[in-house]
Amino acid sequence: MTASAQALPLAVESGTGGILLWVVLPYISLAVFVLGHVWRYRYDKFGWTTRSSQLYERRLLRIGSPLFHFGILVVLLGHIGGLLVPESWTDAAGISEHTYHVVAVVLGTIAGVCTLGGLAILIYRRRTVGPVFSATTRNDKAMYLSLTVTIGLGLAATVAANLVGGGYNYRETISPWFRSIFYLQPDADLMTGVPVLFQLHAVSALLLFAAWPFTRLVHMLTAPLGYLTRPYIVYRSRDTQLGSRAPHRGWERIR
């Protein structure tokens, strides 16, 4: 850890608070995330949707939605690579720590800015477009707030530690802690000394994942595979004046 990273303020160090945050909370969040999705799918299949508001407004949606979704996709892939792939693996692949660090910081910063920018546009759209605002629930508002806080803290941690400060190698602390949760050997001591912005980002992410199954974010786990095999939808006109043009072969009108 560099001197600049050490100069950053620290949050919870150890003891009961550390056990609650870095051992108990992750397992609660994981359990609620899994069981919550099972419950939602079983008892609220018709609510498993994004509740699209595209019919109400499209101009802002065309800008904000791609920015947010492509940005969050890159952020997600970066987190998967940074948290699940050990540093020894990238070293064995011939990728130096400096190269990995530069690529991760540059792509992570760009993706974070795009994600926050797209989210800001989507929130502005929901607040200023009457029909969209009327269709926004309290649950949606809480979800947008949680997303903004989590993404904002992640971007702030990246900027503070790597662009403003002298750098911080989270793959020596946060990544092993994250993997230890799935090994069923959680090591809270690894989070001791981690800069406060990284700690706050981790806690906010755990809370977001606990709330995830009960929001419209469930649509992320839905793949529209049924569209590939479902039968065609037949549309029939109610107009008695169908015109005099002869139908194409194979498209005779249904009487």
From TrEMBL:
Q: Which UniProt keywords apply?
A: Cell membrane, Electron transport, Heme, Iron, Membrane, Metal-binding, Nitrate assimilation, Oxidoreductase, Transmembrane, Transmembrane helix, Transport
Q: Name one Pfam family in it.
A: Nitrate_red_gam
Regarding the membrane, this protein is recorded as:
Multi-pass membrane protein
Which residue range or ranges hold the NarG-like domain? 20-238
- Write out the transmembrane intervals: 19-39, 60-80, 100-124, 144-170, 190-212
Name its cellular compartments.
Cell membrane
**PANTHER family for the chain:** NITRATE REDUCTASE PRIVATE CHAPERONE, REDOX ENZYME MATURATION PROTEIN REMP FAMILY, RESPIRATORY NITRATE REDUCTASE 1 GAMMA CHAIN
The name this protein carries in UniProt is Respiratory nitrate reductase subunit gamma
Taxonomic placement: Bacteria, Bacillati, Actinomycetota, Actinomycetes, Kitasatosporales
